[in-house]
From TrEMBL:
Name of the protein in question: tRNA-specific 2-thiouridylase MnmA
Domain tRNA-specific 2-thiouridylase MnmA-like C-terminal: 279-347
InterPro entries: MnmA-like, MnmA-like_C, MnmA-like_central, MnmA-like_central_sf, Rossmann-like_a/b/a_fold
Functional summary from the UniProt entry: Catalyzes the 2-thiolation of uridine at the wobble position (U34) of tRNA, leading to the formation of s(2)U34.
GO biological process, one term: tRNA wobble position uridine thiolation
Region Interaction with tRNA, annotated ranges: 142-144
Domain of life: Bacteria
Domain tRNA-specific 2-thiouridylase MnmA-like central: 201-266
Signal as UniProt keyword: no
Family label: Belongs to the MnmA/TRMU family.
Residues involved in ATP binding: L26, G119
Amino acid sequence: MSGGVDSAVAAARLVAEGHDVTGVHLALSKNPASYRSGARGCCSLEDSHDARRVADKLDIPFYVWDFAEEFHEAVVEDFISEYRAGRTPNPCLRCNEKIKFAAVLDRGIALGFDAVATGHYADLRRHGDGTVSLHRAADDAKDQSYVLGMLNQAQLSRCLFPLFDVEKPVVREEARALGFGVAKKPDSHDICFIADGDTQGFLARHLDDAPGEIVDSVGAVLGTHRGTHRYTVGQRKGLDLRVPAPTGEPRYVLSIEPVSRTVVVGSREDLAVRSFSGIRTTWTQEPVEGPWRGKAQYRAHGLAQDATIEVTDGGLTVSLDEPASGVAPGQTVVVYDGDRVVGSAVIAEAA
């Protein structure tokens, strides 16, 4: 129970269905004040109080589980090291992969619980052969199957997503009808462990400013920078280049080379990619052999694009029907067969 409206209504629905429900809030920082608070928050002291009040209304047990050490190592340190390596990670996916549906699930099973339920908007379908498939939620605007795409069959079989069939306004109305104070609480967003929302400032405090050159695609030096961690692929603003493009068009970050401390920029057309390879694959079910037609999504709020997908020895390859922009190493690609999640991988290279 995060302290938000979604997990509150998810818990209420399970209670109404007759499940034996226990509310758990995750303490993810030794110093909760260092994480976001208020409307933009997640996992703060304020959120834990909101979650406890909902549990009290539902008359269910409520506990706070301390996963601060695991979260720092698996999510925060990973976030920093990925930027150090010139990649663009998604810490929310990492948290789901390593904390919410791994460490929490393991502890829950050890304590005798059957499953972990959350307020994620995604659809789980159980089949006669005992397998479980993960699908997009009914509410396309809130669908969160992308951030769950790294879960495997064993994990999915122990999950419950009670909000699979409703839209967000209905969830808020259910919360209001139940008298939950979180009914009008805004959704949390951004990165929970960066209290002021300044990602570049956070990285600058944890990574050394190592100056380097900003060059074009043929190697001509256009300017300098104070650290590759200040840039992401697809970035246009904040380049502070003194040499304008011959066409007068804006330039975008094409790639980041942390070893040589070089940031490569070019035109919007140069940013387009048709294919990319993925490593660290996870399959929700047995992977499909041979090339197959599906959809690929590489941003949590991005559109899934038609693609040809193929499993390789080292992971998978995705060939897009139409070019995409802003595909960066370190991002996660989730591949779909219709509305069913097939699996995911971390993008290694794009071309």
